[in-house]
Write a structure and sequence with these properties.
alpha+beta; single chain; two-stranded antiparallel sheet
């Protein structure tokens, strides 16, 4: 069966709607700096409450999944490629700021998407 781009997009869109457990070690905001030619990943800590929601460890307030949130990141990582960024985060940072395999896989996918957007001068929006 031949898959076309819209079919692949539909598969990814559907999978993006699934439930995922949040990583108790925190989350990343990924963005590009085109002038520097870099992919950035800001790491933020959180606590997962009894409802499974991410909570700001300083304020105790739930961190919304959508919209702008004013928080201070704990670490910022940067790399020219997805692989360089992954090596910095997963191999060179101790303790590793990612504790769940599904979170690591997600980040790998996002770093590749960010790298492709950087190289092709396309817009990048984190999934």
């Amino acid at each position: 069966m031949d898959l076309i781009v819209k079919d692949l997009v539909a598969i990814d869109d559907k999978l993006s709607q699934r439930h995922i457990d949040l990583d108790p070690a925190g989350y990343f905001i990924i963005y590009l700096d085109r002038s520097e030619g870099l992919i950035y990943a800001k790491h933020f800590t959180n606590v997962i409450d009894e409802r499974g929601l991410a909570v700001d460890p300083e304020t105790g307030k739930v961190i919304p999944a959508r919209g702008k949130v004013e928080r201070t990141y704990t670490t910022v990582f940067s790399g020219r490629t997805a692989k360089e960024l992954s090596v910095k985060i997963f191999e060179q940072t101790q303790p590793c700021p990612v504790t769940q395999l599904d979170h690591a896989a997600y980040l790998g996918r996002e770093f590749v998407r960010a790298e492709v957007a950087l190289v092709t001068e396309q817009e990048y929006v984190q999934d």
